[in-house]
Amino acid sequence: MWAMFFLRLVPRPLVVQKQGMTNSYNIRTTVASDAAAIAEVQVASWQSSYKGIVPDPLIEQLTIQNRTQAWERIIPALAENGQGEVFVWTLDNRIVGFASMGPQRETELRDMGYVAEVTAIYIVDAAKRRGGGRALMAACAGAAVARGHRQMSVWVLTENWGGRGFYESIGGQELIQRESEDRTAPIDETAYGWTDLQALIANNPQ
């Protein structure tokens, strides 16, 4: 959840749809016009989930404007790369979460067989505990399987107990930890992994 996004967009229609008594949602691949909405989700998530974990100056420097500008550059670039995908979750026609997957960037995890990685997953507080996080993770797992990968990992802030509980609830196993190099403002991370991506896909609420 700490890492960002260097992947590919493969335009595709709906991945998951569900109708509930009061809500409807779908998971789909990202399009260029999603940049501002993705930025809003990311900034809101940092402000709510990382308060007290990440130093305030780091949270404050992440703005909707600079993240929108970044996504406006990143999304078109993704179309040139076939190594990963980004998905958004829309609830009642509004983007409330997103996730991205791509090739593993941590050598130790890659050597352990985790050749795919969820590089980012963020959901606004109001939309949590409605199944969208599971659906986003399942979409990332499906994208990994489509690329021939059999295992997948994700990094989460070590002190983000809510995030860690979520990964454990969908079968994630704690793998390794890494410490921040900045000991004045340590932001340590823990990696979780899945060896059975088909089981993770089965968690997709449909």
Automatic annotation (TrEMBL):
InterPro entries: Acyl_CoA_acyltransferase, Bact_Acetyltransf, GNAT_dom. Residues 25-199 form the N-acetyltransferase domain. GO terms for molecular function: acyltransferase activity, transferring groups other than amino-acyl groups. SUPFAM superfamilies: Acyl-CoA N-acyltransferases (Nat). Keywords: Acyltransferase, Transferase. Pfam families: Acetyltransf_1 (PF00583). The keyword Metal-binding does not apply. The keyword Glycoprotein does not apply. This is N-acetyltransferase domain-containing protein. It comes from Marivivens niveibacter.
